[in-house]
Structure formats: C-alpha cells, structure tokens
C-alpha cells in the first residue's frame, strides 16, 4: 500500500471511529464545542475543499449541481454520511459516468474534510446503426419473422455536448417505415441551474398502419406503393428542476397527420372525416425520483403524473391524466421487492383509434399478454417483482481494451418471480360489441405471473428473459430490454 492510500485509509478510519463514538455515546455529541471554533459541536465537520478528477469533458458545475453539500458547509457526521450516499447516486444518475467514487481526507485538529470525487466518463458520441421491427415488440415480430417489415438507419447521438450534459440526436431511418428528425436538450439555461429547455422535430412516413383491433390483436393495413401515414411533429419544452429529485416539464407540440383516404375512411380510425389532422398538444409532467439507480433500481421510489390536452378538441379527443408510482425495497440481504402502479383516465368517451392507447403499448402491459392489445379510455396496471441477486453487482476488467470507458464493466444477475394485474375500461358506445370484434380482454380482469432472469450492465443495458402464464392459460417466453418496473 503506497503512502497516498495509507493516508486515505487512516483518514477514513478516523471518520468511522468518530461516527461510531457518537453513535454509541450520543451524550458526547452535545457536550461543548470545538476548543478553537466556538459554535461547532464535536460531532461536526467542515467541508474544506471538493476535488474532482476524471471529468475530461464534463463541466465541473454539472457535477457540483448534484452534490448535497458545498465547500465551507458545517455538517454533522451522520448528516454528511447520508449526503455522500445521495450525492453519489445523483452524479451517477446523470448518466454521464460509468463509475463514481467519493473519498475523503480528514484533518483532526481543524475538524475539516476534503472530498475527492473520482469519475470514469462514458463514451459520449454514438453513431449507432438503427434497426427496428415494425411490430409492437420483438416477441410479436418473431411470430412472423418478416424481414420486409424492418426499418434501418443511423441514430447519431452526442451526449454531454459542450461538457454541459446537453444532448443532440439526429435520426435517419430508412426501409419499411421512415423517420427523419432531431432533438436538442439543454438541462440548464440559468446560473443557478434550475431551468432547462428542449426542442425538436420529426417527419415519419409509414407504409403500414394498425387500423383497428380484432381478437385482441391489431389489424394492419398495408400499401407498398403509398405512404398510408405522413406525420410531422415539432415540440418545444421548458424544464424546471428546483431540487435534486423534482422536475416539472411543460411542453407544447404541433402535430400534423396526413392519412391516405383508405385509412381515414375506416370507421373509428379518426373522429372527423378528414385526411389531414392538425392539432396542438399541451402537456405538463411532474416527476419526483428517489431511485438509487434509475435504469435498474433496487431501492427508493419514483412518482410522476402527466396531464395532456389537445386543441382543437373536435379533431384530437386526446386529453388524459396519467400517473406512475413505483416503490423499491431491499427486503433482506440479497432479496429485493418492487411494486409499480400505472393508471390513466381519459376525458373523452370517444377517441380516434390512432391516438387511443390502453394496455399492450410501450411499457404498459401485463406480462404474459405481450401478443395482445387491450383498447380503452381508462386503465390501471399493477406490477410486482420479488427478486434475488444471483450475482450481486461486481466489476469485471477487460485487459485487452485500453480505454477505461469500455474496459471496466459492472455486471449483475437477478432471478425474480412476478405477478401483474391489469384492467382496461372501454365505453360500450365507443367500440363495436366485443362479440363482433372478438376483443374479449377489454372490461375484464387481467392477470399474468411467472419467473424471469435479469442481466444488468453498463451503459444502461438491461436484458430480461421471462417465462409467463396469463389468465387464459397460455404460457410464453418473452425477451425485453428495460427494467420490469
């Protein structure tokens, strides 16, 4: 052990001994003050200096924004210990770094503390080949394995642009469905780093569209010679982050759909019988996030809700309230439990099919029903996971790769048991009778349960394999690429 490591070890040992002393003998923490610094109790320390290393690109202000403490703060030892944990999580959750290490060195006589933050930055420039199936998820596409339904291209993303955690994305998608556009997001535009903004625009061209639901599955209309949908979408947003955990997002978007007459003439697909559908979309999103690691959390909680309203009302009929509440516990040692509730209430009984979303889209589905969609104006979804860390997170080293951005890999493996519950309400007057369409899952109780294996590693990569059974007694094995809850 070299001298630097020896000094660091001794400093950390002194802090641990002091914290232990005042924990087992709380009376001593309030007995008098520092002999040379009146008003400072014996269980307090002063933050002297904060050192940051490893941020070759990232601006120091972006890192300091995530700290619960600052230089010259006077803190109790217990308070400082909690702040260290929170600060480390905050820095990691910026998703700018693969590893975050915080060390301290303590000067006993002065009761001052130096904090050293050591970072390993991610790779920020990603010209990634884009590959997408034209179905709702991989499992649905695998049923047909139709390669004509593939979309390909390049997504060029520049994370941490200018070292200020700004993100520029340029999309170029070709093939079956085409998409071109960009987004640019700036997390902070004011000196105190509470206000941010973003803007972007996309153009989408589709040869195939789902036009109605039958037997609980989307029915597609396809034309190889004509674009059935042309979509222009542009948005601007303002973000307000008053503290570490809360963010308010206000967004205004202009949306224009141009449908082929063969699509807009299908009953229920649109509200007004017009091929051109233009409207503005106003939304407000509130998020309060206390998860330890956002891309695969094990402890903490997250609450968000969204209010959305479209104008003019007579065309869009797409006003709704939506909320998510997720909670994560460490039950015992390597055992963890998570539960998440998602609910949506629409303000209209009749919605155009192309905007209506119940269960079966994106991350809103009951496991075991991946092959189905359940249409409706309102839904509730409850997901529950009990997991065991088969391989708690460990760090592997790839010696043949010279870059620290790629050669140090965190690995974790979890086995889990789950049960999901869901319900979608569809107004009878807004949909054909279920015995005519075969959509038997709407207005009925859904349940899915099973076992899964989750693999999590760096750059927010999650791979899940799950075996599930649904209420209809249908077993299945499914593959997913995001955290279950």
General description of the model:
The chain has two domains: 3-121, Roll (Ubiquitin-like (UB roll)); 125-175 and 206-230 and 242-480, Porin. The protein has a 16-stranded antiparallel sheet with strand order 5-6-7-8-9-12-13-14-15-16-17-18-19-20-21-22. It has a four-stranded mixed sheet with strand order 2-1-4-3. It has a two-stranded antiparallel ribbon with strand order 10-11. 14% of the residues lie in helices and 50% in strands. The chain is mainly β.
Question: What's the SSE blueprint?
Answer:
Blueprint: H1 3-24, E1 44-53, H2 60-64, E2 74-76, H3 77-92, E3 97-107, E4 112-121, E5 125-133, H4 138-144, E6 150-161, E7 166-175, E8 177-186, E9 195-206, E10 208-214, E11 217-222, E12 229-240, E13 246-259, H5 261-264, E14 276-289, E15 300-311, H6 313-316, E16 320-332, E17 335-346, E18 378-397, H7 404-407, E19 408-425, H8 434-437, E20 445-457, E21 461-470, E22 475-480
Parallel strand pairs: 1-4
Antiparallel strand pairs: 1-2, 3-4, 5-6, 6-7, 7-8, 8-9, 9-12, 10-11, 12-13, 13-14, 14-15, 15-16, 16-17, 17-18, 18-19, 19-20, 20-21, 21-22
